[in-house]
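Translate sequence into structure tokens.
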Amino acid sequence: MYLAGRMTDRTVLLVTGLDVGLLGKVCAMARLLQPSMVVLEDVDLVAEERTGTNACGPLLFELLNQMDGLADDADVVFLLTTNRADRLEPALAARPGRVDQAVEIPLPDAGCRRRLVELYGRGLTLRLDDMDALIARTEGVSAAFVKELLRKAALIATDTGGSGDDLVLEDRHVAAALHELVVEGGELTRSLLGVRPGFHAT
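Result follows.
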């Protein structure tokens, strides 16, 4: 979304979920609307490494054909995202000319998590007496986790009587939200929210 916002002169076509089945049509549209950018989210679902039991699928062939079939003067950028770069098919990831640049976006550090709390806390009254403790307790989480943490804390604050402009988030609300996400939510919730394996808030 950041890149799409920065490339205002480029038509952006976002391909997610079941849309990958329309990859050929999307790429044809990208050529018509160039300069353009095709964003294929979670490319590992299409281009997972081949094994003896996992043959190269038709969607991967389609992606490779579309990337290879662009004319030299075509102004179409492919942006492929994944959380599992280690599982990508080498025909896509390791072949020169198909992927020109790979960028790793690491989990947010302490300073970034602090800014994320401030960002997702906009519109709320944050009355956190020990922000440093919260930042320390959330080491190893993703930006999506911080966003969900603040959302859930706001719901908890609403349940305890706050509303509208009077809604105040206190340490107890955030602590309850953190417990709900990490302990009650279980491993699946932590995985979906981008928490590193083995994370436990203490």
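Note: Residues 143-159 form the longest helix (17 residues).
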